[in-house]
Amino acid sequence: MTKSTPFGNMLTEAIYNIRLREHKLISTVQNEVGSAIGRNGSTIEYWRKGNIPAKEADLIRLTKVLRKRVSFEKTWFIEFLENADYIKATELCNELFPNALAQRKTIGSWAPSNHISILIGRNAEIKAISEALRDKHSRWMIGIDGMGGIGKTAIAQQVSQICAQS
């Protein structure tokens, strides 16, 4: 069994992001991404397990496809490429993000619990929960319910940050 790596974890994050945004199966997303770079879905799955693409051209094509399909920041892509030992990460990202300034953030080793996540289409839920918790005239116990992988924890983390700031 292959050991997971920061590169594999970040690729998995991107694949799951596409899955959630486009309401598709993981296998479908892997097949689409693989096809877009001239590979198959099993290659993407192999890379998600922590195996870095052997060919630099495959890594570059993969990065360009992900750039089109996820709305992650430039710093995420720089870290993604650096985790694959790609020497020209900043140069490629400058090409992919022509109008963005690269402010490199050091966030330590990548793990789902400490990585910046992007919530898409959850503003209404976050606002409603935050307002309910800030209501000083009521006591609230709020549960967030749903299937695995839909972003319950991410919503709770975002709400906690908002409430901590107010």
Report on the architecture of this protein.
The protein has helices at residues 6-22, 26-36, 41-48, 56-69, 74-83, 89-96, 123-134, 152-165. The protein is mostly helical and 166 residues long. The longest helix is centred in the first third of the chain and has 17 residues, at 6-22.
Secondary structure topology:
Blueprint: H1 6-22, H2 26-36, H3 41-48, H4 56-69, H5 74-83, H6 89-96, H7 123-134, H8 152-165
Indicate the structural class: mainly alpha
The total beta strand count reads 0
* SSE run: HHHHHHHH
Q: Provide the β-strand percentage band.
A: under 5%
Sheet having the most strands? none
Helix count equals: 8
Radius of gyration: 18 Å
| Straight-line N-to-C gap | 46 Å
Name the helicity range.
Answer: 55-70%
Quote the average pLDDT.
81
